[in-house]
Design goal:
- This is Protein kinase domain-containing protein.
- This protein is 29% helix and 16% strand.
- By secondary structure, it is α+β, with helices and mostly antiparallel strands.
- The protein has 2 domains: 107 residues, Phosphorylase Kinase, domain 1 (2-Layer Sandwich); 254 residues, Orthogonal Bundle (Transferase(Phosphotransferase), domain 1), CATH 1.10.510.10.
Length: 383
């Protein structure tokens, strides 16, 4: 479904001229609604600090109210950020073409003078970071049923990006702050500024590393080799955060050996104490389901990327009472960041060899067949 391209509340006298200007920058104008800067300034009360609801990698996000009363989230790009302009165009062109219940919906944009602004649907419960990992005053009580639904919803959205979007999309920055929650705590993946498009004949892209420390797959962080399995790894880390209510940040360590969350989970699994990873604040939960989710996280974060399931498999592993073949689990991979002090840049090379990702050598399922799912230089963001 495409959105009608129109001016908002009569803000522009000539849509054709503005459309032509946008098309010269590679923007698909038939997919978005065009807003004037003045209309968005009015919606946010001149971008008042009290309306700030978040900060992305390249700008600030404000809550706004349009003239018709619609609440929106307005992401304003830093005017001085040249690199951010590339991410703005990537995010606009990527998200404007896709629709899924677990992906944030783009409403429109503003590209006027030096202003670069994206307008999204407003989600009442903010980000998963705020709801689950934020300060005590901002946290929301998420019982196990809500957490389980968030996990399966995120998996569904990511599976859509990897397998059903045209072309396929690798997000590259799956993390708690990029998962937003609506009034019913339905999760929606957002912030597509770092996304990469993967045509069907492409197995991997060699590119500068981009993402967030703590969620980066080791093969991608070290070699810059990006595949869908990098997103799978990030999803596995996020899954552990949701189960445990703890951060995967290097600032959070566990046990006498000061292990990171993923290392701690692996240790507990090997010692038969995996249940200890479950958030102690959860008073009533399905232990069998929580343990299965934790094991799925370990499957997703294995050091060898080819051993990780794809997201269609992950959806099935989370959604159905399947028996997981735990004997296939191998040690998780972990990348520890060391600052190199180098400058940034990007030279992407694309490989078009036969798609090896579809040639799964082993199945994470025990006696189970998969059904089709129907439904460079480092640029890394701090935690």
């Amino acid at each position: 479904m495409k959105m009608v391209f129109s001016s908002c509340f009569g803000a522009f006298d000539s849509c054709r001229e503005e459309s032509t200007a946008m098309e010269t920058q590679g923007i698909a104008t038939n997919n978005v609604t065009l807003f004037s800067y003045n209309s968005l300034r009015s919606a946010t009360r001149s971008f008042h600090p009290s309306n700030r609801i978040g900060r992305g990698g390249f700008g600030i996000v404000y809550k706004g109210i349009l003239r018709d009363g619609t609440q929106v989230a307005i992401k304003s790009l830093s005017a001085e950020s040249n690199q951010g302009t590339n991410e703005f165009l990537t995010e606009l062109n990527t998200i404007s073409k896709i629709r899924h219940p677990n992906l944030v919906q783009l409403i429109g944009c503003c590209i006027e003078d030096n202003y670069r602004i994206l307008v999204y649907e407003y989600l009442e419960n903010n980000s998963l970071t705020s709801a689950l990992l934020g300060s005590s005053g901002k946290r929301v009580e998420l019982d196990w049923s809500k957490r389980a639904a968030i996990c399966t919803g995120m998996a569904s959205g990511l599976a859509f990006l990897h397998e059903y979007a045209e072309p396929r999309i690798v997000h590259r920055d799956i993390k708690a702050s990029n998962v937003l929650l609506d009034e019913n705590f339905i999760p929606k993946i957002g912030d597509f500024g770092l996304a990469k498009l993967f045509p069907d004949n492409v197995t991997h892209v060699s590119t500068r590393v981009a993402g967030t420390i703590g969620y980066l797959a080791p093969e991608y962080a070290k070699l810059g080799k990006l595949t869908k399995k990098a997103d799978v790894y990030s999803f596995g880390v996020l899954l552990l955060e949701i189960i445990s209510g703890k951060s995967s940040s290097s600032n959070a360590t566990f046990g006498d050996d000061c292990l990171l969350l993923l290392e701690w989970t692996w240790k507990l699994f090997n010692e038969g104490r995996l249940v200890e990873i479950v958030d102690s604040d959860l008073m009533d939960y399905r232990e069998d389901e929580a343990l299965r989710f934790a094991k799925v996280a370990l499957f997703c974060t294995q050091a060898a990327s080819q051993k990780r399931p794809d997201m269609k498999q992950v959806v099935k592993m989370l959604s159905k009472g399947v028996n997981l073949n735990e004997s296939l689990l191998s040690e998780p991979g972990l990348f520890r960041f060391q600052h190199s002090g180098k400058s940034s840049g990007e030279n992407s090379q694309v490989s078009s060899q036969p798609n090896k990702e579809k040639q799964s050598t082993t199945s994470p399922f025990m006696n189970s067949q998969l059904d089709d799912y129907s439904h460079s230089v480092t640029h890394m963001l701090p935690r």
